Protein backbone atom coordinates (compact mmCIF):
# COMPACT_ATOMS: atom_id res chain seq x y z
CA UNK A 1 0.00 0.00 0.00
CA UNK A 2 2.95 2.34 0.68
CA UNK A 3 4.13 1.84 -2.91
CA UNK A 4 0.82 1.91 -4.80
CA UNK A 5 -1.88 3.21 -2.47
CA UNK A 6 -3.92 0.11 -3.32
CA UNK A 7 -5.29 -2.21 -0.65
CA UNK A 8 -5.77 -5.96 -0.81
CA UNK A 9 -7.02 -8.96 1.15
CA UNK A 10 -4.50 -10.96 3.19
CA UNK A 11 -5.71 -14.49 3.90
CA UNK A 12 -3.59 -15.63 6.87
CA UNK A 13 -3.67 -19.24 8.04
CA UNK A 14 -2.99 -19.93 11.72
CA UNK A 15 -2.54 -23.58 10.77
CA UNK A 16 0.24 -22.75 8.30
CA UNK A 17 1.84 -20.25 10.67
CA UNK A 18 2.21 -23.00 13.27
CA UNK A 19 3.40 -25.51 10.66
CA UNK A 20 6.09 -23.07 9.50
CA UNK A 21 7.85 -23.03 12.86
CA UNK A 22 8.00 -26.76 13.56
CA UNK A 23 11.77 -27.16 13.46
CA UNK A 24 12.31 -27.96 9.77
CA UNK A 25 10.20 -31.10 10.21
CA UNK A 26 8.81 -31.06 6.67
CA UNK A 27 12.12 -30.38 4.93
CA UNK A 28 14.06 -32.95 6.97
CA UNK A 29 11.43 -35.68 6.71
CA UNK A 30 10.90 -35.22 2.97
CA UNK A 31 14.63 -35.34 2.25
CA UNK A 32 15.01 -38.58 4.23
CA UNK A 33 11.93 -40.08 2.58
CA UNK A 34 13.29 -39.28 -0.89
CA UNK A 35 16.44 -41.23 0.00
CA UNK A 36 14.39 -44.13 1.32
CA UNK A 37 15.90 -43.69 4.76
CA UNK A 38 13.92 -44.87 7.79
CA UNK A 39 12.45 -41.97 9.74
CA UNK A 40 10.96 -41.87 13.22
CA UNK A 41 8.18 -39.43 14.01
CA UNK A 42 7.63 -40.77 17.52
CA UNK A 43 8.14 -38.47 20.47
CA UNK A 44 11.08 -39.38 22.70
CA UNK A 45 11.26 -36.99 25.63
CA UNK A 46 14.26 -34.65 25.78
CA UNK A 47 16.31 -36.92 23.54
CA UNK A 48 20.10 -37.26 23.57
CA UNK A 49 20.97 -33.65 22.66
CA UNK A 50 18.96 -31.42 25.01
CA UNK A 51 19.33 -33.49 28.16
CA UNK A 52 17.63 -32.61 31.46
CA UNK A 53 19.68 -33.39 34.58
CA UNK A 54 18.49 -33.23 38.23
CA UNK A 55 20.26 -31.09 40.82
CA UNK A 56 19.67 -30.04 44.44
CA UNK A 57 16.60 -27.82 43.93
CA UNK A 58 15.29 -28.88 40.53
CA UNK A 59 16.69 -29.53 37.06
CA UNK A 60 18.96 -27.99 34.44
CA UNK A 61 19.12 -28.41 30.68
CA UNK A 62 22.63 -29.44 29.64
CA UNK A 63 23.76 -29.41 26.00
CA UNK A 64 27.19 -30.82 25.12
CA UNK A 65 27.73 -30.82 21.35
CA UNK A 66 31.19 -29.60 20.33
CA UNK A 67 34.54 -31.13 21.29
CA UNK A 68 35.34 -27.91 23.19
CA UNK A 69 32.18 -28.28 25.29
CA UNK A 70 32.96 -31.96 25.92
CA UNK A 71 36.52 -31.21 27.03
CA UNK A 72 35.20 -28.52 29.40
CA UNK A 73 32.72 -30.79 31.17
CA UNK A 74 35.19 -33.68 31.18
CA UNK A 75 37.59 -31.40 33.07
CA UNK A 76 34.78 -30.51 35.49
CA UNK A 77 34.28 -34.24 36.10
CA UNK A 78 37.96 -34.52 37.05
CA UNK A 79 39.34 -35.97 33.78
CA UNK A 80 38.59 -39.64 34.58
CA UNK A 81 40.77 -42.07 32.62
CA UNK A 82 37.80 -43.95 31.15
CA UNK A 83 36.56 -40.80 29.38
CA UNK A 84 39.79 -40.05 27.47
CA UNK A 85 38.98 -42.14 24.36
CA UNK A 86 39.28 -39.79 21.31
CA UNK A 87 36.07 -41.30 19.93
CA UNK A 88 34.21 -39.48 22.70
CA UNK A 89 35.19 -36.16 21.10
CA UNK A 90 32.43 -36.95 18.60
CA UNK A 91 28.77 -36.69 19.57
CA UNK A 92 27.97 -40.19 18.29
CA UNK A 93 30.65 -41.69 20.51
CA UNK A 94 29.20 -39.97 23.58
CA UNK A 95 25.67 -40.89 22.57
CA UNK A 96 26.53 -44.58 22.90
CA UNK A 97 27.33 -44.18 26.60
CA UNK A 98 25.08 -41.26 27.53
CA UNK A 99 22.37 -43.16 29.42
CA UNK A 100 24.60 -45.70 31.11
CA UNK A 101 27.62 -43.53 31.95
CA UNK A 102 27.49 -39.80 31.21
CA UNK A 103 24.07 -38.73 32.47
CA UNK A 104 24.55 -40.50 35.85
CA UNK A 105 27.95 -38.81 36.17
CA UNK A 106 26.42 -35.41 35.45
CA UNK A 107 23.64 -36.04 37.98
CA UNK A 108 26.17 -37.01 40.64
CA UNK A 109 28.24 -33.90 39.93
CA UNK A 110 25.21 -31.59 40.07
CA UNK A 111 23.48 -33.22 43.06
CA UNK A 112 24.87 -30.94 45.80
CA UNK A 113 24.37 -27.73 43.75
CA UNK A 114 21.32 -25.58 43.02
CA UNK A 115 20.08 -24.84 39.52
CA UNK A 116 21.66 -21.39 39.69
CA UNK A 117 24.99 -22.74 40.92
CA UNK A 118 25.18 -25.46 38.28
CA UNK A 119 24.24 -23.11 35.44
CA UNK A 120 26.58 -20.33 36.54
CA UNK A 121 29.57 -22.62 36.91
CA UNK A 122 28.82 -24.42 33.64
CA UNK A 123 28.56 -21.15 31.73
CA UNK A 124 31.82 -19.96 33.31
CA UNK A 125 33.46 -23.06 31.87
CA UNK A 126 31.91 -22.50 28.41
CA UNK A 127 29.33 -25.27 28.80
CA UNK A 128 25.75 -24.74 27.64
CA UNK A 129 23.51 -25.17 30.70
CA UNK A 130 20.45 -23.25 31.94
CA UNK A 131 18.03 -23.64 34.89
CA UNK A 132 14.64 -25.31 34.54
CA UNK A 133 12.41 -22.52 35.91
CA UNK A 134 8.71 -22.47 36.73
CA UNK A 135 6.56 -19.41 35.93
CA UNK A 136 6.82 -18.13 39.52
CA UNK A 137 10.62 -18.50 39.31
CA UNK A 138 10.64 -16.44 36.12
CA UNK A 139 8.66 -13.63 37.75
CA UNK A 140 11.24 -13.38 40.54
CA UNK A 141 14.37 -14.14 38.49
CA UNK A 142 17.22 -11.64 39.03
CA UNK A 143 18.10 -11.82 35.33
CA UNK A 144 14.65 -10.84 34.14
CA UNK A 145 14.53 -8.16 36.82
CA UNK A 146 17.88 -6.79 35.63
CA UNK A 147 16.50 -6.59 32.08
CA UNK A 148 13.15 -5.07 32.97
CA UNK A 149 11.37 -8.01 31.31
CA UNK A 150 8.13 -7.31 33.19
CA UNK A 151 6.04 -4.16 33.68
CA UNK A 152 3.90 -3.63 36.76
CA UNK A 153 0.42 -2.70 35.48
CA UNK A 154 -2.20 -1.45 37.95
CA UNK A 155 -5.71 -2.80 37.41
CA UNK A 156 -8.86 -0.76 38.17
CA UNK A 157 -9.31 -2.69 41.43
CA UNK A 158 -5.84 -1.67 42.59
CA UNK A 159 -4.13 -5.01 42.08
CA UNK A 160 -0.74 -5.04 40.37
CA UNK A 161 -0.35 -7.35 37.38
CA UNK A 162 2.99 -8.25 35.84
CA UNK A 163 2.99 -8.15 32.04
CA UNK A 164 5.91 -8.87 29.71
CA UNK A 165 7.30 -5.45 28.83
CA UNK A 166 7.60 -6.06 25.10
CA UNK A 167 8.70 -8.49 22.43
CA UNK A 168 11.67 -6.40 21.38
CA UNK A 169 13.63 -3.17 21.88
CA UNK A 170 14.40 -0.39 19.41
CA UNK A 171 17.52 1.64 20.28
CA UNK A 172 17.20 0.34 23.83
CA UNK A 173 13.56 1.33 24.24
CA UNK A 174 11.01 -1.35 25.05
CA UNK A 175 8.03 -1.77 22.74
CA UNK A 176 5.33 -3.15 25.02
CA UNK A 177 2.26 -2.31 27.12
CA UNK A 178 1.14 1.32 27.12
CA UNK A 179 -1.50 0.95 29.81
CA UNK A 180 -4.01 -1.38 31.47
CA UNK A 181 -6.71 -3.22 29.52
CA UNK A 182 -9.63 -0.94 28.61
CA UNK A 183 -13.06 -0.97 30.19
CA UNK A 184 -16.01 -1.55 27.86
CA UNK A 185 -16.80 1.70 26.03
CA UNK A 186 -13.94 3.60 27.64
CA UNK A 187 -12.68 5.07 24.35
CA UNK A 188 -15.91 5.30 22.35
CA UNK A 189 -15.69 9.06 21.76
CA UNK A 190 -12.05 8.88 20.69
CA UNK A 191 -12.74 6.08 18.25
CA UNK A 192 -15.69 7.82 16.61
CA UNK A 193 -13.81 11.11 16.45
CA UNK A 194 -11.15 9.50 14.24
CA UNK A 195 -13.57 7.90 11.78
CA UNK A 196 -13.93 9.53 8.39
CA UNK A 197 -10.42 10.99 8.31
CA UNK A 198 -9.16 11.45 4.77
CA UNK A 199 -7.17 8.59 3.31
CA UNK A 200 -5.03 8.82 0.17
CA UNK A 201 -6.69 7.45 -2.95
CA UNK A 202 -4.99 4.55 -4.74
CA UNK A 203 -2.23 5.92 -6.96
CA UNK A 204 -1.85 2.85 -9.12
CA UNK A 205 -3.69 -0.39 -9.82
CA UNK A 206 -2.73 -3.42 -7.77
CA UNK A 207 -0.03 -5.47 -9.48
CA UNK A 208 1.62 -8.75 -8.62
CA UNK A 209 4.95 -7.98 -7.03
CA UNK A 210 7.42 -8.76 -4.29
CA UNK A 211 6.92 -5.98 -1.75
CA UNK A 212 10.53 -5.88 -0.49
CA UNK A 213 12.16 -5.71 -3.93
CA UNK A 214 15.09 -3.31 -3.89
CA UNK A 215 16.00 -3.86 -0.24
CA UNK A 216 19.52 -5.13 0.51
CA UNK A 217 20.17 -7.33 3.53
CA UNK A 218 23.42 -8.59 5.09
CA UNK A 219 22.71 -11.87 6.87
CA UNK A 220 25.26 -12.90 9.53
CA UNK A 221 22.78 -15.40 10.97
CA UNK A 222 23.77 -18.80 12.35
CA UNK A 223 21.63 -21.73 13.42
CA UNK A 224 17.92 -20.96 13.53
CA UNK A 225 17.10 -17.36 14.48
CA UNK A 226 19.09 -15.02 12.24
CA UNK A 227 18.84 -17.25 9.18
CA UNK A 228 15.05 -17.36 9.50
CA UNK A 229 14.94 -13.55 9.73
CA UNK A 230 16.96 -13.38 6.52
CA UNK A 231 14.72 -15.94 4.86
CA UNK A 232 11.66 -13.80 5.55
CA UNK A 233 13.22 -10.85 3.73
CA UNK A 234 14.42 -13.01 0.84
CA UNK A 235 11.01 -14.63 0.35
CA UNK A 236 9.43 -11.25 -0.33
CA UNK A 237 11.92 -9.77 -2.74
CA UNK A 238 14.88 -8.42 -0.77
CA UNK A 239 18.41 -9.18 -1.96
CA UNK A 240 19.70 -11.16 1.02
CA UNK A 241 23.40 -12.04 1.12
CA UNK A 242 24.34 -14.76 3.61
CA UNK A 243 27.82 -14.06 4.98
CA UNK A 244 29.97 -16.90 6.31
CA UNK A 245 33.36 -18.54 5.96
CA UNK A 246 34.77 -22.01 6.29
CA UNK A 247 36.49 -20.90 9.49
CA UNK A 248 33.10 -19.93 10.93
CA UNK A 249 30.58 -21.99 8.98
CA UNK A 250 26.89 -22.05 9.89
CA UNK A 251 26.69 -25.23 11.97
CA UNK A 252 23.24 -26.03 10.54
CA UNK A 253 24.81 -26.09 7.08
CA UNK A 254 27.35 -28.69 8.18
CA UNK A 255 25.19 -30.74 10.55
CA UNK A 256 25.21 -33.77 8.21
CA UNK A 257 28.94 -33.60 7.57
CA UNK A 258 28.87 -31.81 4.20
CA UNK A 259 28.06 -28.21 3.31
CA UNK A 260 24.32 -28.57 2.77
CA UNK A 261 21.48 -29.93 4.91
CA UNK A 262 17.67 -29.83 4.57
CA UNK A 263 17.44 -27.49 7.56
CA UNK A 264 19.97 -25.10 6.09
CA UNK A 265 18.31 -25.25 2.67
CA UNK A 266 14.96 -24.32 4.22
CA UNK A 267 16.27 -21.38 6.23
CA UNK A 268 18.73 -20.00 3.67
CA UNK A 269 16.75 -20.39 0.46
CA UNK A 270 16.10 -17.22 -1.55
CA UNK A 271 19.52 -15.84 -0.57
CA UNK A 272 22.87 -15.27 -2.20
CA UNK A 273 26.06 -16.50 -0.51
CA UNK A 274 29.31 -14.68 0.22
CA UNK A 275 32.34 -16.41 1.66
CA UNK A 276 34.47 -13.89 3.51
CA UNK A 277 36.80 -14.15 6.50
CA UNK A 278 35.83 -11.50 9.05
CA UNK A 279 38.88 -12.41 11.13
CA UNK A 280 41.11 -10.60 8.63
CA UNK A 281 41.55 -6.86 8.21
CA UNK A 282 40.65 -7.08 4.52
CA UNK A 283 37.50 -9.07 5.28
CA UNK A 284 36.30 -6.53 7.85
CA UNK A 285 37.02 -3.70 5.40
CA UNK A 286 34.91 -5.36 2.69
CA UNK A 287 32.01 -5.99 5.07
CA UNK A 288 32.02 -2.39 6.23
CA UNK A 289 31.94 -1.31 2.60
CA UNK A 290 28.94 -3.58 1.99
CA UNK A 291 27.15 -1.92 4.90
CA UNK A 292 27.17 1.40 3.03
CA UNK A 293 24.58 0.01 0.60
CA UNK A 294 22.64 -2.20 3.02
CA UNK A 295 19.18 -1.52 4.38
CA UNK A 296 19.24 -4.25 7.04
CA UNK A 297 21.97 -6.19 8.87
CA UNK A 298 21.02 -9.39 10.74
CA UNK A 299 23.09 -11.11 13.45
CA UNK A 300 22.41 -13.60 16.22
CA UNK A 301 25.96 -14.29 17.39
CA UNK A 302 26.93 -14.49 21.05
CA UNK A 303 26.76 -11.21 22.92
CA UNK A 304 29.67 -8.95 21.93
CA UNK A 305 30.82 -10.98 18.91
CA UNK A 306 30.00 -8.33 16.30
CA UNK A 307 31.69 -5.62 18.37
CA UNK A 308 34.75 -7.80 18.84
CA UNK A 309 35.00 -8.28 15.07
CA UNK A 310 34.76 -4.53 14.50
CA UNK A 311 31.31 -4.89 12.92
CA UNK A 312 29.03 -3.69 15.73
CA UNK A 313 26.09 -1.37 15.26
CA UNK A 314 28.00 1.83 15.98
CA UNK A 315 30.62 0.96 13.36
CA UNK A 316 28.04 -0.06 10.74
CA UNK A 317 25.93 3.03 11.45
CA UNK A 318 29.06 5.12 10.94
CA UNK A 319 29.35 3.61 7.46
CA UNK A 320 25.61 4.01 6.78
CA UNK A 321 23.43 6.18 9.09
CA UNK A 322 20.28 4.67 7.57
CA UNK A 323 21.11 1.02 8.25
CA UNK A 324 18.90 -1.09 10.54
CA UNK A 325 20.65 -3.82 12.54
CA UNK A 326 18.64 -6.69 14.05
CA UNK A 327 20.44 -8.46 16.90
CA UNK A 328 19.13 -11.53 18.71
CA UNK A 329 20.95 -13.08 21.67
CA UNK A 330 19.94 -15.99 23.89
CA UNK A 331 19.39 -14.04 27.11
CA UNK A 332 19.63 -10.56 25.59
CA UNK A 333 22.60 -8.25 25.15
CA UNK A 334 22.40 -6.99 28.74
CA UNK A 335 21.38 -8.38 32.11
CA UNK A 336 22.98 -10.77 34.60
CA UNK A 337 23.03 -13.68 32.14
CA UNK A 338 23.73 -11.71 28.95
CA UNK A 339 26.93 -13.64 28.26
CA UNK A 340 25.34 -17.07 28.62
CA UNK A 341 25.66 -19.51 25.75
CA UNK A 342 22.88 -21.76 24.52
CA UNK A 343 20.31 -22.81 21.99
CA UNK A 344 16.55 -22.37 21.61
CA UNK A 345 15.70 -25.30 23.93
CA UNK A 346 17.65 -23.58 26.71
CA UNK A 347 15.25 -20.63 26.61
CA UNK A 348 12.24 -22.96 26.90
CA UNK A 349 13.37 -24.14 30.31
CA UNK A 350 14.58 -20.76 31.56
CA UNK A 351 11.48 -18.97 30.30
CA UNK A 352 9.13 -21.30 32.21
CA UNK A 353 7.51 -22.92 29.17
CA UNK A 354 9.02 -26.42 29.39
CA UNK A 355 7.64 -26.78 32.91
CA UNK A 356 4.10 -26.26 31.60
CA UNK A 357 4.71 -28.99 29.00
CA UNK A 358 5.10 -31.53 31.82
CA UNK A 359 2.50 -34.19 32.47
CA UNK A 360 -0.14 -33.12 34.96
CA UNK A 361 0.75 -33.86 38.60
CA UNK A 362 4.15 -35.27 37.63
CA UNK A 363 7.15 -33.28 38.92
CA UNK A 364 9.64 -35.03 36.62
CA UNK A 365 10.16 -33.00 33.42
CA UNK A 366 8.63 -34.68 30.38
CA UNK A 367 11.20 -33.04 28.12
CA UNK A 368 11.05 -32.42 24.39
CA UNK A 369 13.32 -32.03 21.38
CA UNK A 370 11.72 -28.91 19.92
CA UNK A 371 14.03 -25.96 19.24
CA UNK A 372 11.27 -23.40 19.82
CA UNK A 373 11.54 -20.36 19.87
CA UNK A 374 14.18 -20.24 17.09
CA UNK A 375 11.81 -20.00 14.13
CA UNK A 376 9.37 -17.81 16.04
CA UNK A 377 12.16 -15.44 17.12
CA UNK A 378 13.38 -15.31 13.52
CA UNK A 379 10.00 -14.04 12.39
CA UNK A 380 9.89 -11.54 15.23
CA UNK A 381 13.32 -10.37 14.10
CA UNK A 382 12.01 -9.85 10.57
CA UNK A 383 9.07 -7.87 11.92
CA UNK A 384 11.28 -5.57 13.99
CA UNK A 385 13.86 -5.04 11.27
CA UNK A 386 11.16 -4.27 8.72
CA UNK A 387 9.53 -1.87 11.18
CA UNK A 388 12.85 -0.05 11.48
CA UNK A 389 13.24 0.19 7.71
CA UNK A 390 9.66 1.38 7.18
CA UNK A 391 10.05 3.92 9.98
CA UNK A 392 13.18 5.31 8.36
CA UNK A 393 11.43 5.45 5.00
CA UNK A 394 8.44 7.31 6.41
CA UNK A 395 10.25 9.68 8.75
CA UNK A 396 13.75 9.89 7.27
CA UNK A 397 15.32 9.98 10.72
CA UNK A 398 17.97 7.32 10.11
CA UNK A 399 18.38 3.68 11.00
CA UNK A 400 18.15 1.96 14.36
CA UNK A 401 19.32 -1.04 16.35
CA UNK A 402 16.52 -3.52 17.10
CA UNK A 403 17.04 -6.35 19.57
CA UNK A 404 15.03 -9.56 19.94
CA UNK A 405 15.97 -11.36 23.17
CA UNK A 406 15.24 -15.04 22.57
CA UNK A 407 14.23 -16.02 26.10
CA UNK A 408 11.80 -13.09 26.16
CA UNK A 409 10.00 -14.57 23.15
CA UNK A 410 9.22 -17.58 25.35
CA UNK A 411 8.07 -15.31 28.18
CA UNK A 412 6.03 -13.23 25.73
CA UNK A 413 3.97 -16.10 24.35
CA UNK A 414 3.07 -16.89 27.98
CA UNK A 415 2.10 -13.31 28.77
CA UNK A 416 -1.43 -14.17 29.87
CA UNK A 417 -0.19 -16.99 32.10
CA UNK A 418 2.52 -14.83 33.63
CA UNK A 419 -0.09 -12.19 34.40
CA UNK A 420 -2.34 -14.80 36.00
CA UNK A 421 0.52 -16.19 38.10
CA UNK A 422 1.42 -12.71 39.31
CA UNK A 423 -2.17 -12.14 40.47
CA UNK A 424 -2.81 -15.66 41.77
CA UNK A 425 0.52 -17.19 42.89
CA UNK A 426 0.63 -20.95 42.29
CA UNK A 427 -2.30 -20.92 39.86
CA UNK A 428 -0.29 -21.68 36.71
CA UNK A 429 0.69 -25.34 36.68
CA UNK A 430 1.11 -28.09 34.05
CA UNK A 431 -2.31 -29.19 32.81
CA UNK A 432 -1.19 -32.14 30.72
CA UNK A 433 -4.06 -33.18 28.46
CA UNK A 434 -6.41 -30.60 29.95
CA UNK A 435 -7.02 -26.87 29.60
CA UNK A 436 -8.48 -23.96 31.50
CA UNK A 437 -10.36 -22.99 28.32
CA UNK A 438 -12.84 -25.85 28.43
CA UNK A 439 -13.50 -29.48 29.32
CA UNK A 440 -12.90 -32.00 27.85
CA UNK A 441 -9.99 -30.54 25.92
CA UNK A 442 -6.98 -32.43 24.63
CA UNK A 443 -5.52 -35.09 22.38
CA UNK A 444 -7.07 -38.54 22.19
CA UNK A 445 -5.77 -41.71 20.52
CA UNK A 446 -7.26 -42.69 17.18
CA UNK A 447 -6.93 -45.82 15.07
CA UNK A 448 -3.35 -46.52 14.02
CA UNK A 449 0.09 -46.44 15.61
CA UNK A 450 0.65 -43.21 17.57
CA UNK A 451 -2.20 -41.45 15.78
CA UNK A 452 -4.07 -38.75 17.68
CA UNK A 453 -6.95 -36.32 17.33
CA UNK A 454 -7.64 -33.08 19.19
CA UNK A 455 -11.14 -32.52 20.59
CA UNK A 456 -11.94 -29.24 22.36
CA UNK A 457 -15.22 -28.47 24.13
CA UNK A 458 -15.64 -24.79 24.96
CA UNK A 459 -19.20 -24.76 26.29
CA UNK A 460 -22.01 -26.90 27.67
CA UNK A 461 -23.72 -26.69 24.27
CA UNK A 462 -20.68 -28.14 22.54
CA UNK A 463 -20.56 -30.91 25.12
CA UNK A 464 -24.17 -31.81 24.34
CA UNK A 465 -23.27 -31.90 20.63
CA UNK A 466 -20.28 -34.17 21.30
CA UNK A 467 -22.47 -36.52 23.34
CA UNK A 468 -24.78 -36.89 20.33
CA UNK A 469 -21.81 -37.47 17.99
CA UNK A 470 -20.65 -40.30 20.26
CA UNK A 471 -24.12 -41.88 20.12
CA UNK A 472 -25.31 -40.62 23.53
CA UNK A 473 -23.67 -43.38 25.62
CA UNK A 474 -25.06 -43.77 29.12
CA UNK A 475 -21.89 -42.54 30.82
CA UNK A 476 -22.00 -39.23 28.89
CA UNK A 477 -25.63 -38.44 29.63
CA UNK A 478 -25.21 -38.37 33.40
CA UNK A 479 -26.69 -35.19 34.88
CA UNK A 480 -23.44 -34.22 36.58
CA UNK A 481 -21.60 -33.89 33.25
CA UNK A 482 -23.97 -31.35 31.71
CA UNK A 483 -21.97 -28.47 33.23
CA UNK A 484 -18.29 -27.63 32.87
CA UNK A 485 -17.88 -27.76 36.63
CA UNK A 486 -19.19 -31.30 36.70
CA UNK A 487 -17.00 -32.36 33.80
CA UNK A 488 -13.87 -30.95 35.41
CA UNK A 489 -14.55 -33.05 38.50
CA UNK A 490 -14.63 -36.17 36.31
CA UNK A 491 -11.90 -35.35 33.77
CA UNK A 492 -10.00 -38.61 34.16
CA UNK A 493 -13.08 -40.80 33.62
CA UNK A 494 -14.26 -38.66 30.69
CA UNK A 495 -10.83 -38.83 29.03
CA UNK A 496 -10.79 -42.61 29.29
CA UNK A 497 -14.27 -42.91 27.81
CA UNK A 498 -13.62 -40.47 24.94
CA UNK A 499 -10.35 -42.30 24.19
CA UNK A 500 -12.23 -45.58 23.99
CA UNK A 501 -14.52 -43.99 21.36
CA UNK A 502 -11.85 -42.17 19.31
CA UNK A 503 -9.53 -45.20 19.21
CA UNK A 504 -12.07 -47.07 17.10
CA UNK A 505 -11.99 -44.43 14.34
CA UNK A 506 -9.41 -42.67 12.23
CA UNK A 507 -8.43 -39.14 13.23
CA UNK A 508 -10.04 -37.86 10.02
CA UNK A 509 -13.35 -39.57 10.79
CA UNK A 510 -13.42 -38.21 14.35
CA UNK A 511 -12.62 -34.74 13.01
CA UNK A 512 -15.33 -34.84 10.34
CA UNK A 513 -17.98 -36.08 12.78
CA UNK A 514 -17.13 -33.44 15.40
CA UNK A 515 -16.91 -30.54 12.97
CA UNK A 516 -20.24 -31.47 11.41
CA UNK A 517 -21.76 -31.08 14.89
CA UNK A 518 -19.96 -27.80 15.62
CA UNK A 519 -17.39 -29.29 17.99
CA UNK A 520 -13.78 -28.11 17.38
CA UNK A 521 -11.53 -31.01 16.39
CA UNK A 522 -8.52 -31.78 14.24
CA UNK A 523 -6.03 -34.55 13.47
CA UNK A 524 -2.51 -34.47 14.86
CA UNK A 525 -0.22 -34.32 11.85
CA UNK A 526 3.36 -35.43 11.54
CA UNK A 527 5.55 -34.18 8.70
CA UNK A 528 4.74 -37.23 6.58
CA UNK A 529 1.03 -36.53 6.97
CA UNK A 530 1.52 -32.85 6.08
CA UNK A 531 3.31 -33.84 2.89
CA UNK A 532 0.20 -35.46 1.41
CA UNK A 533 -2.51 -33.31 2.98
CA UNK A 534 -4.89 -32.00 0.28
CA UNK A 535 -5.63 -28.80 2.23
CA UNK A 536 -1.95 -27.84 2.47
CA UNK A 537 -1.56 -28.74 -1.18
CA UNK A 538 -4.58 -26.73 -2.31
CA UNK A 539 -3.27 -23.61 -0.58
CA UNK A 540 0.18 -23.96 -2.13
CA UNK A 541 1.89 -24.49 1.21
CA UNK A 542 3.82 -27.55 0.00
CA UNK A 543 6.74 -26.44 -2.18
CA UNK A 544 8.64 -29.39 -3.72
CA UNK A 545 12.09 -28.48 -5.05
CA UNK A 546 15.31 -30.11 -6.12
CA UNK A 547 18.03 -28.85 -3.79
CA UNK A 548 21.60 -29.28 -5.08
CA UNK A 549 23.62 -31.18 -4.10
CA UNK A 550 21.46 -33.26 -1.75
CA UNK A 551 18.34 -33.95 -3.84
CA UNK A 552 14.55 -33.62 -3.72
CA UNK A 553 12.73 -32.20 -0.71
CA UNK A 554 9.61 -30.26 0.24
CA UNK A 555 9.95 -26.70 1.49
CA UNK A 556 7.47 -24.90 3.73
CA UNK A 557 5.43 -22.32 1.83
CA UNK A 558 4.04 -18.99 2.98
CA UNK A 559 1.55 -18.84 5.85
CA UNK A 560 -0.76 -16.51 3.97
CA UNK A 561 -2.14 -15.67 0.54
CA UNK A 562 -2.78 -12.21 -0.89
CA UNK A 563 -4.39 -10.70 -3.95
CA UNK A 564 -1.02 -9.67 -5.32
CA UNK A 565 1.56 -12.07 -3.92
CA UNK A 566 3.95 -13.11 -6.64
Task: Tag the structure with descriptive keywords.
single chain; alpha/beta; three-stranded antiparallel β-sheet; 25 helices; globular
Structure description:
The protein has 25 helices and 20 strands. The strands form six sheets. The chain has an eight-stranded mixed sheet, sandwiched between helices. A three-stranded antiparallel sheet has the order 2-3-4, sandwiched between helices. α10 packs across α17 and α15 packs across α18 (406-413). The longest helix is centred in the C-terminal third of the chain and has 22 residues, at 374-395. The mean pLDDT is 93.
Sheet-strand content, in percent, reads: 15-25%
Record the strand order, biggest sheet. Answer: 8-7-14-13-12-9-10-11
Helix/strand/pairing category: alpha/beta
Quaternary status: single chain
- Number of beta strands: 20
Overall 3D form: globular
* Rounded average pLDDT: 93
The total of helices stands at 25
Helix content: 25-40%
Distance between the first and last residues' Cα:
15 Å
Rg measurement, Å: 25 Å
Major β-sheet profile: 8 strands, mixed
Uncertain regions spanning at least 5 consecutive residues: none
Write the layout of secondary structure elements.
Blueprint: E1 10-12, H1 14-20, H2 25-34, E2 51-55, E3 58-63, H3 67-76, H4 91-95, H5 98-110, H6 115-124, E4 128-131, H7 135-140, H8 142-147, E5 150-154, E6 160-164, E7 168-170, E8 173-175, H9 188-194, E9 216-219, H10 225-235, E10 239-244, H11 262-268, E11 271-275, H12 281-291, E12 296-299, H13 305-308, H14 313-319, E13 324-327, H15 344-350, H16 353-356, H17 374-395, E14 400-403, H18 406-413, H19 415-423, E15 441-445, E16 452-456, H20 460-469, H21 484-489, H22 491-502, H23 507-516, E17 521-523, H24 527-530, H25 534-538, E18 542-547, E19 551-556, E20 560-562
Parallel strand pairs: 9-10, 9-12, 10-11, 12-13, 13-14
Antiparallel strand pairs: 1-20, 2-3, 3-4, 5-6, 7-8, 7-14, 15-16, 16-17, 18-19
Helix pairs in contact: 10-17, 15-18
Amino acid sequence: REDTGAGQVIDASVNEAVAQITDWSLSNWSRAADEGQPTSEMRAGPGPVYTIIPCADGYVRLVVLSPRQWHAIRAWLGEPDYLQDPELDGFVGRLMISDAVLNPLYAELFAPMTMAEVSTEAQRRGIVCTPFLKPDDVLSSPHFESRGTFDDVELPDGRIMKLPSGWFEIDGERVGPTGPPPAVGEHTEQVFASLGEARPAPAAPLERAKPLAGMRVMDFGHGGVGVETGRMFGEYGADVVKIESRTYIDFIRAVLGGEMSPSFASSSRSKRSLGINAKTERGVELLRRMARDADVIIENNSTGTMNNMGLGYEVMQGENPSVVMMSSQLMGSRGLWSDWLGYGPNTQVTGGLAHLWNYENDPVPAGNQSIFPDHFAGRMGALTALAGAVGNRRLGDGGCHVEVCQVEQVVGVMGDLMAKESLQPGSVQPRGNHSDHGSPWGLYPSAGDDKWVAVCVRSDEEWAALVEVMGAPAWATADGLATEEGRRAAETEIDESIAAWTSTMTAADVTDACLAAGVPAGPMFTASMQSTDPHFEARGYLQPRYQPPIGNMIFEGAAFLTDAMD
